[in-house]
Automatic annotation (TrEMBL):
Tree of life domain: Bacteria
CDD domains on file: GGDEF
Record field: catalytic activity: 2 GTP = 3',3'-c-di-GMP + 2 diphosphate
Alphabetical list of PANTHER family matching this protein: DIGUANYLATE CYCLASE DGCM-RELATED, REGULATORY COMPONENTS OF SENSORY TRANSDUCTION SYSTEM
Tagged with keyword Transferase: no
Gene3D superfamilies with a match to the protein in the record: 3.30.70.270
EC number(s) stated in the UniProt entry for this protein: 2.7.7.65
Keywords: Membrane, Transmembrane, Transmembrane helix
Domain GGDEF: from-to ranges: 180-305
Native species: Pseudoalteromonas caenipelagi
Protein name: diguanylate cyclase
């Protein structure tokens, strides 16, 4: 028995015990309230068919207990299948036993558990369907999380540069084929290396995380942000003209500059002003040359400051 099966055995121990009591009890009840038939009165074809059905319901029961976690669906399946199995077992046993006339209740009772079992199984199917819907939803969410987790920068919580490059390629195609304009902004924290040295990597990393969150919070739903390199961020603004893009980024830069991180309980003022730049993409431009162009422009702006 595998480790998983052993654990399912422990998990459903009371149900296994119940099953181990109910089956012999049914057989004993039938045997003690009826008379054994002569072998020539036994219809062997019926025996095989009814015995087969009883055996299959027992197999389904065992499979349910070996594969399902604890819960209402498992309980409904267990009791539904058990009731059906009792009916099938009695049906099989009456091939060998003639119910005494004093015990006609046995014949009347034969089909009753199957009927109750089918009702319970119908509820089980309904709740199983609901359970599966929830599981599917959770799997979908997990799958999205893992898919997007690989594209996320752990420090800032924003997308990585690779993902941004793919999105820029898509926007460049939309610009080329459908004339849809888009803008790109670079945001660079001033003197981040000084901050790093003065307050240490952990505090500097949390500054990067803060800046990432401030950028995200101040963008529109359609915009996309990534951490491009060390303290440099890119914002992609699809379907946006230059003047609107500049307004958006001006506000983002203002909010980042006004953020005052704390270090060792002290407010650090003026430590995270930013250099920023916003440009519109040119039709026919390549992603690499667009990025090189705006990076070079920002570097020139920084050295002129
Ligand atoms: N804490 C932390 N520091 C990083 C990370 N990646 C790069 N850095 C540091 O970021 C700093 C970037 O330095 P620079 O590019 O000179 O930027 P700067 O100091 O802001 O210079 P200016 O932009 O000219 O004001 C370097 O000290 C890098 O070591 C990171 O993931 N975490």
């Amino acid at each position: 028995m595998s480790v998983i099966q052993q654990s399912f055995f422990k998990l459903h121990k009371p149900l296994w015990v119940l099953l181990a009591i109910v089956i012999p009890t049914t057989i004993l009840t039938v045997a003690s309230n009826s008379t054994l038939k002569n072998t020539d009165a036994v219809d062997w074809i019926d025996c095989i068919c009814e015995g087969g059905i009883a055996f299959m319901t027992l197999l389904w029961l065992i499979a349910t207990l070996l594969s399902r976690p604890k819960g209402n669906v498992t309980l409904l399946l267990f009791f539904g299948l058990s009731a059906m199995h009792i009916s099938m077992l009695m049906d099989f046993l009456d091939e060998f036993y003639r119910f005494d006339s004093a015990n006609t209740w046995l014949s009347a009772f034969e089909a009753f558990p199957a009927f109750i079992g089918m009702i319970l199984m119908s509820f089980a199917m309904y709740f199983w369907y609901q359970e599966q819907q929830i599981l599917n939803f959770m799997l979908l969410k997990k799958e999205r999380f893992y898919r997007e987790y690989g594209l996320t920068d752990f420090i800032s919580g924003l997308y990585r540069a690779e993902y941004m490059k793919q999105q820029i390629d898509k926007e460049l195609l939309a610009l080329k084929h459908h004339n849809i304009p888009f803008c790109i902004a670079l945001i660079d924290i001033k003197e981040f290396s000084v901050f790093n040295e003065k307050y240490g990597v952990t505090k500097a990393n949390s500054l990067l995380a803060d800046v990432g969150q401030i950028i995200l919070l101040n963008l529109r739903d359609s915009d996309l942000a990534c951490r491009y390199a060390s303290d440099r961020f890119i914002v992609l603004m699809p379907n946006t003209n230059l003047s609107t893009a500049k307004q958006v980024i001006n506000q983002v830069a203002d909010r980042v500059s006004n953020h005052r991180p704390y270090a060792q309980g002290h407010l650090i003022s003026g430590s995270n002003d930013v250099h920023w730049l916003c440009e519109q993409a040119h039709k026919g431009e390549q992603q690499a040359s667009l990025l090189a162009r705006i990076n070079a422009q920002l570097n020139t702006q920084k050295s002129a400051a």
